[in-house]
Amino acid sequence: MSNTLVLVEQSGGALARGAAELLAAAAALGTPSAVVVTDGDGAEIASQLGSLGANTVYVASVPGDASRLVTPLVAALAAAVTASGDVAAVIVGSTLDSREAGARLAVRIGGAYQSDVVGIADSGAVTQQAFGGAFTVQSTAGKGIPIISLRPNSVAGSAPAAAGTLVPLDVSNDGAPAATVTARHEKSAVSARPELQSADIVVSGGRGLGSKEKFVLVEELADAFGGAVGASRAAVDAGYVEHNMQVGQTGVTVSPNVYIALGISGAIQHRAGMQSAKTIIAINKDASAPIFDIADFGVVGDLFTVVPQLIDAVNARKA
Amino acid sequence: MKIAVLVKEVPDTWGDRKIDPTTKRVDRSGELVIDEINEKAVEAALLVKEANPGSEVTAVTMGPSGSLDAIRKSLAMGADSGIHITDDGLAGSDASQTSAALATALAPRGFDLVITGNESTDGRTAAVPAMLAERLGIAQLTFLRTLEVSGGTVSGERMTEDGHVDVSAPLPALVSVTEQIAEARYPNFKSIMAAKKKPVETIGIAGLGLDAAETGGSNSWSVVEAVTPRPPRAGGTVIKDDGTAGTQIADFLAAAKLI
């Protein structure tokens, strides 16, 4: 059986979220193996990835691996493809670094890059969404190795534990010019809240919240549900929250089981980022807001009285 | 400094956007506009030009023969010249083929800095900037929300999933910008008139020296097999808050076994 390579990002020896899902997706197409860039020896990482289903773990040990932007990942993937020989597909995650590494790999080795994939058939054909889920697209690789960027929560199940045999890669001849990462300003990956893109429940706030201080209400409702926090572009532009929480055409695309829109009018660009949610709840004081056209349950009212009552009701059910 | 900025026309995100079920490509028969992120990329290029006297900005687009509006808008904003890559044989190019055509046009012209939007609103692959950096063999500084170029060094803040990182590289380099980068300036009447006199070069497959057996939808790496429109989403129940709406939402979610 051919090999399927999975790019797994790590930080300080901790595997990025989603490694198990990527390996499960890989197992459906071939013998799953992982590719890792680390400044350590990778022994502990290899053992973890073996338990998640990686047959072979290709490890590129790069001193200061995190200081060169994207290119070490590309070099490691290209070296792993060569070392592995018969490769059915390469699967990468949906982080910026992984997506860009996959895109560059497609150019470097001659591959078919398939972005933002939400499903993979056993044949290797992939499912994507266009225009915010308004169209479903089936694609295949016309030529070259398929290089698939997988959206989180797209593939169910897990791969059986495997050997996790460590194979070192030599990427010392990687001459690709790269930008240097001079400082990181990132919140700890350990957050009490689930990740926005893959959360089961997303609570988003818009301009209707009125201020950064009042936006806390969105967070309180999200926490009552154990959900993630999102925002409309209007709320981001108003400075209520950071841009990486923006849901919509130019932000994150989400398709949770439940999407709750608070004080969001539902402009077409916002809907492009959330209209594939299974159930949509909206609260807005403007009865003509377009969000009500797609809401399964809508409330015309003041979110500052409705939401606290909803939080109490949710907490009462948990008690 | 020679700066290239990539622009293109896309279906207006305010409109009803479609994929043609026969060609399986984006339906471009409706209203086309310069992608908003491209206007911001042009603004970023003009700010770099203004901070580095003696610089020139060239707006580059790839698209059908009539698709010059994105270039015209860029010239009216203040770009100095345009390049229009157009050829029937390029129609249906995927991200990899697009980056190949762009790289072939840009490489011989010796640009110090290539600026793009981070992601178009139609394809949304966000792959062309990274692919182009790979093909040109220059550093990529993508998803920047700030940009500074001075003394032969380009730097800025790259957005990440958990915040941002500071990145820096010597020129030449490729930058992609996010929508936080800057608000695009409005061209005035004088600059719109002046734009009509600015040079726009047109190049096709032969002029680029591309192999026609590698270009266009029939030779693409990624092949679209089928396109299915999703049925329109129907609205559900909308109530006016009578003082119990919060409880009713919880009841609705519980009845659907969602909480």
Describe the protein in words:
The complex is a heterodimer of chains A (319) and B (259). In chain A, helix 3 (71-84) crosses helix 4 (96-109). The mean pLDDT of chain A is 95. Chain A is built from eight helices and 17 strands. Chain A folds into two domains: 3-169, Rossmann fold (3-Layer(aba) Sandwich), CATH 3.40.50.620; 196-318, TPP-binding domain (Rossmann fold, 3-Layer(aba) Sandwich). By secondary structure, chain A is α/β, with parallel strands linked by helices. Chain B has 259 residues and is of the alpha/beta class. Chain B has one domain (2-219): HUPs (Rossmann fold). Helices cover 26% and strands 29% of the residues of chain B. Chain B is built from seven helices and 14 strands. In chain B, the strands form three sheets. A seven-stranded parallel beta sheet of chain B has the order 7-11-6-1-4-5-12, with helices on both faces. In chain B, strands 8-9-10 form a three-stranded antiparallel beta sheet, with no helix packed on it. In chain B, strands 2-3 form a two-stranded antiparallel sheet. In chain B, strand 8 (148-150) and strand 9 form a beta hairpin. The radius of gyration of chain B is 22 Å and the shape is globular. Classes of the chains: A alpha/beta (319), B alpha/beta (259). Chains A and B meet through helix 4, strand 7, strand 9, strand 12 and strand 16 of A and helix 3, helix 4, strand 7, strand 9 and strand 10 of B. Strand 17 (297-300) of chain A pairs parallel with strand 14 (237-240) of chain B.
Poorly predicted ranges of chain A (pLDDT <50, ≥5 residues)?
Answer: none
Q: Structural class of the helix and strand makeup of chain A?
A: alpha/beta
Structural class of chain B: alpha/beta
Percentage of β-strand residues of chain A: 25-35%
- Overall pLDDT score of chain B: 95
Mean pLDDT score of chain A: 95
Biggest interface between chains? A-B, 92 and 86 residues
The oligomeric status of these chains comes to heterodimer
For the record, the CATH class of the largest domain in chain A is Alpha Beta
Largest sheet of chain B: 7 strands, parallel
Shape, principal axes of CA atoms of chain A:
elongated
Which ranges of chain B are low-confidence, i.e. pLDDT below 50, for 5 or more consecutive residues? none
> How helix-rich are the residues of chain A, as a percent range?
25-40%
Count of domains of chain A: 2
Total domain units of chain B: 1
